[in-house]
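Q: Please design a sequence for this.
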């Protein structure tokens, strides 16, 4: 005593610290060094120490704190990312609109992804993810944007671009970055993993805003 119990979730790990003691105050004292050690080891990767707070709630809190609005451009997740954020009461103060651009035509028509980019690099690429985020932010007049484009499966993969390959772009103010991910679950898990990575990536960039 105390003990640490890890709980693995899609894209997250929850750590439960428990102590046996005569009362709550003594238990808190026993757990304090353990919690401090976890905070030192994991740093900003810890998004909350309150069990009731979700990742999307922390994202909304940060957006409010930074006075930013966000938008999403989603291909393979087809609205799951936006749906996750609007689970949070008050999300309307930081999110007004998003874009589901499943086809190449939609990417071009709705958020201005270049036809040349789509033809040269494909819909699943760093270049397309970057243009999706930039185009969505401009269209929605938002300071922050997250784009997701990938191959959720079970069909559609190739040797060069296998099932589970996902590119995520995050724009915050004048900065934009794209990352490549490889997921190994079924279609539903790949899409859910992309949503969690998108939120985590966004949170990471928001923490850098002064």
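A: Design:
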């Amino acid at each position: 005593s105390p003990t640490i119990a890890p709980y693995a979730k899609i894209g997250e790990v929850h750590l439960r610290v428990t102590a046996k003691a005569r009362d709550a105050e003594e238990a808190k004292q026993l757990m304090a060094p353990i919690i401090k050690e976890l905070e030192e080891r994991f740093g900003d990767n810890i998004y909350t120490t309150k069990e009731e707070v979700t990742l999307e709630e922390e994202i909304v809190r940060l957006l409010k704190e930074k006075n930013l609005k966000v938008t999403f451009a989603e291909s393979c997740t087809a609205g799951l990312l936006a749906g996750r954020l609007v689970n949070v009461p008050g999300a309307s103060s930081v999110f007004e609109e998003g874009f589901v651009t499943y086809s190449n035509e939609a990417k071009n028509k709705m958020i201005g992804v270049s036809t040349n980019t789509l033809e040269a690099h494909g819909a699943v690429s760093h270049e397309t993810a970057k243009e999706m985020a930039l185009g969505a932010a401009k269209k929605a007049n938002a300071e922050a944007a997250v784009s997701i484009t990938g191959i959720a499966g079970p069909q559609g993969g190739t040797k060069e671009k296998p099932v589970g390959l996902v590119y995520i772009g995050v724009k915050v103010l004048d900065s934009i970055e794209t990352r490549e991910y490889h997921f190994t679950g079924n279609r539903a898990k790949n899409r859910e993993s992309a949503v969690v990575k998108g939120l985590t990536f966004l949170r990471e960039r928001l923490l850098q805003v002064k």
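Q: Thanks. Anything notable?
A: The chain has seven helices and seven strands. The two ends are 40 Å apart (CA to CA).
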